[in-house]
Sequence to fold (698 residues):
Amino acid sequence: MEVLEEEEVEQTAEDLNSLNISDSLQDVETKESEEEVSIPKDVPGFDWSSIDTSHLPSSYKTNSLKEKKLLHMADHFLQQYTHLCPDRKPLFLHPANECGMEKFVSTTVRPTLLPYPELYHWSGCASFVSNYLTMEPLKCPLTPPSSLYSPTTILKYQRGNCFDFTVLLCSMLIGAGYDAYCVHGYATHEICTLDQTQDLCPLLRKPQEVPMMKKPRKYRLSIPSEPQSKFELQQKAKKMEEAEDVQKEEEAEDVQKQEEEVVTEVEKPKREPLLGLRVHAWVLVLSGKRKVPETFFINPFTGNSHNTTDECFLGIESIWNHRNYWVNMQDCREGCKDLSFDLSDGFRWEIMFPESNEPLSESSEGDMDDMETEERDTSFEMPLTWVAEIKVSCREFENQYAQGKKVILYQKAKLEKWAPYVNEDGLEERLTVYADLDCTEVVEVTEWFKNREDMLDMREMNKQTQLTTDYFRPGHPLLLKAHTYTSLEPETGHTMEFYHKARDDDLRKRVENATEMTEYFVGRSDFLHIRHVEFGERENGMDVAGTRPDVNLRPIVQIKECFHRNPEKPADEDVEERIFMITDDTIQLTYHLEDHDTIASKVVFLRAIQRDRKGEEIFLTRDTCVKYQPWSSEKHKSVLHLYMLLLELRNEQKELKHQVRESEAEVIDILKVREDEEANIKLTVSMYNTAQRGCQRE
Fold:
């Protein structure tokens, strides 16, 4: 920007009066707009004028010679700017700090790298700032604030407006190595007021499915097409066009009806009278440093990243970092989607303090002296920041929420967050999904836990089906992975998943209710993968020795087992399915198929066990054995082989009944343990968590 003479910079009294009149009109609009701005209900009133500034360093209360010179240069720059761009609003250059001293905005940014691994990435810094601070709306939504407090004061009181959020986040990002800038611009009502009721909760967004690319075949068989009449094709095309036109008209009518119905159900959004005028501040991160592939925005209120073409951001006045200040000279009538962020382009970005990064060419000593004197005259070194060192203790970093809790309202959803160890049950996050926009009918509730001794990680509660599913991290004493139930009472319907690799029986899942129980196995040496048990009704006085006396066991009606194919055995010797009908005293075997077979071999033993005076004996006759044996080997056709097979099955039936009783007892033990864990919840504290261990000792 060309340097103007002082005579050209001076304004007439009429110009000043016109500016005062426009300001008064703007104040009237501001009062009307303030009534429309909705302040969050969870933000209590806070009087910034009552804060104690006596303990602050002297740099907060005075200005050095360099700072005074900087303020003078900024005022001169502002005079030139208002003269050349009289239609543009005043720049945000040197607001007052908490001690009432005017400070240039670039000196308020203090690059800081905090000693926490999570804060080395931009997402961790943005999440910390959005969670740690409480949002305060601007007093006037049309103008930037008259004051800008230091990041240390903002961290101390854990609250601030969008400019306070932005300066703190930008300081952390620059300290972490990002090419970050504070942005003064304009945004929509939802962005400025932190209204996310029209947005879908990020936890409910489904991940995009990546389409599987099929490998093209090297050789393809070209099939010649059948000859067709061109006239017939034209007639078909005309009929298709007519049918499409009729269908489009019907669809358009249906869409209009649906829109009318939706409008009646959902309130129309209110017209935004201040669209494009609401002032907002956010962070700009340029590509290049820290391997950032593309330039993007960060909304400090939410911590979310946005593309520079996002329609929520309507324009930019200026940007700054800890070294310089740039004014946007580009047209923002179409928002920010057409803006160029090449700050070296002097036509698009007017820099306040010129930077000379070009190398000097070889010249005479006299020329070098002249160039050095010119650089001394034109260049300006930014003073050091007046802000004290930014510090965040371990306790403050762990308890990131100002009031111990944060509530975010989304479209048909509510997300609640708590700091660690605030809730006695270890609850840190809860997502409630509603069926209506008014958030009155609850559909599903999902809770996330941490530091639980029982390794409980997440709980899903479906309010329509009344089903509850608990998910556990590895390390539960009973090797539980998930548990779905309606009640912790036995025989009320339970689905239990286990970490099968840690179990001796390789049990992956068990589904149990009052009449049946199904177990699923993975990777067993006997190739068993399913065991299904059916129970009958209880009889009075029925009890089994060795079990709890207060448990009345259910009679076993049938046991069915399914096996995978064992490649080491021939198919006619490899059992695929076997069914033990306990009450009918029947055993049924079904064998695997060979590749060329269509019907499987089967053997059925009917009433195989008969009793006499001496005890139990096995009588193998034609009436007690039914078989379909397309077998090739002769041994399967012998009666001795069937007799030995029946003996083996009889012993295995006894063992299976014992295993079923053990499974029933395990279910009861798990339910009892889960009931005790929920009644006496215990939280674990890491040995590296010194802050929480100190509270635990107290």
Q: What stands out?
A: The mean pLDDT is 81. The two ends are 63 Å apart (CA to CA).
